[in-house]
């Protein structure tokens, strides 16, 4: 197997399920805002208020080694055409776009817990495991990940 080194990893957060989804829909309808805007704000709030080391613990657990992520970046991806995958983002038949919240990680900036250089490579299996853990923890319908490889 060829080792791949990722420059960055972007995790797209699909919509939540159950009561959480229903509450966000109600908030969007009551405020007149789109579901995308309400959901993006909700995810930003969650990520901002997570314990400082939550992502360190997630990646450490997956790699089996104590590490520090050191930096994340909250962003989103905008889909301009209506798609079945984003159906829960559309609250009216006129909605065409979906703004999907995302969180970026930068594996070259990961370090050992003591701050020294990390000699472990983040592999695709690790990326998928983190995706599954985030999806389960946040009770999301799906989490999609995009990685940019280092050359």
Question: What this model shows, in words?
Answer:
The chain is an alpha+beta fold. It is built from four helices and six strands. The strands form two sheets. It has a four-stranded antiparallel sheet. Helix 1 packs across helix 2 and helix 3 packs across helix 4. The longest helix is centred in the N-terminal third of the chain and has 15 residues. The radius of gyration is 17 Å and the shape is elongated. The model has no long low-confidence stretch (mean pLDDT 91).
Task: Write down the oligomeric state.
Answer: single chain
The largest sheet has its strands arranged as: 3-4-1-6
- Sheet-strand content, in percent, reads 15-25%
Which sheet architecture does the biggest sheet show? 4 strands, antiparallel
User: Which structural class do you get from the secondary structure elements?
Assistant: alpha+beta
Helicity level: 25-40%
- Order of SSEs: EHHHEEEEHE
Regions with little confidence, pLDDT below 50 for 5+ residues:
none
Q: How many DSSP E strands?
A: 6
Rg of Cα set: 17 Å
Task: Note the gap between the termini.
Answer: 17 Å
Helix count from the secondary structure assignment = 4
Question: Mean of the pLDDT scores?
Answer: 91
Q: What spatial form do the alpha-carbon principal axes imply? A: elongated
Entry summary:
With 151 residues, the chain is an alpha+beta fold. It has helices at residues 18-31, 35-49, 54-63, 124-138, and strands at 6-13, 67-68, 72-79, 98-105, 111-112, 143-149. The strands form 2 sheets. Strands 3-4-1-6 form a 4-stranded antiparallel β-sheet. The protein has a two-stranded antiparallel ribbon with strand order 2-5.
